Amino acid sequence: MHLLKQDKFYGHPVSLIEIDGFTQERVKALPLDTLSAMSEKPVVWIPHVEVANSL
Length: 55
What we know:
The chain starts with 23 loop residues before the first helix and ends in a 17-residue tail after the last helix. The protein is elongated, with a radius of gyration of 14 Å. It has helices at residues 24-29, 32-38. The chain has one domain (1-55). By secondary structure, the chain is mainly alpha-helical. It contains 2 helices and no strands.
């Protein structure tokens, strides 16, 4: 669960294309560890199966 704030990055790379300075090519070239470091961390993790068991 995330507390959403405007102009923050929540992990889906395609959303970066809307930000000045990011192009499709630049986003494709970003390593996964860079994307992870840029991404906002969740407020709470809900473990699948233990709590949330939707299919």
